[in-house]
């Protein structure tokens, strides 16, 4: 997956002072489905940096299965 999406989302999060979750992204050749999540970190009321993560489809699916009530 292209890191340019992660960089753009991180800059948007820092500029706007809010969390950013990307659309679902696919890698080259349709492989590697994931989303990017970027969260600004504030210190003394000022955005200092951004924590970003990429979550692939398999990890996200596993997390949902573990945290979704049955029924």
Count of DSSP H/I helices: 2
Average pLDDT works out at 83
How many beta-strand segments? 3
Residue runs with pLDDT of under 50 for 5 or more positions: none
Please, could you describe this protein's structure?
This protein is an alpha+beta fold and 71 residues long. The protein contains 2 helices and 3 strands; from the N terminus they run αβββα. It has helices at 3-16, 57-67; strands spanning 20-21, 34-43, 46-56. Strands 1-2-3 form a 3-stranded antiparallel beta sheet. β2 and β3 (46-56) form a beta hairpin. The longest helix is centred in the N-terminal third of the chain and has 14 residues, at 3-16. The protein is flat and about 45 Å long. It starts with a helix and ends with a helix. The mean pLDDT is 83.
Features:
single chain; alpha+beta; 3-stranded antiparallel beta sheet; flat
What are the SSEs and their pairings?
Layout: H1 3-16, E1 20-21, E2 34-43, E3 46-56, H2 57-67
Summarize the structure.
Helices cover 35% and strands 32% of the residues.
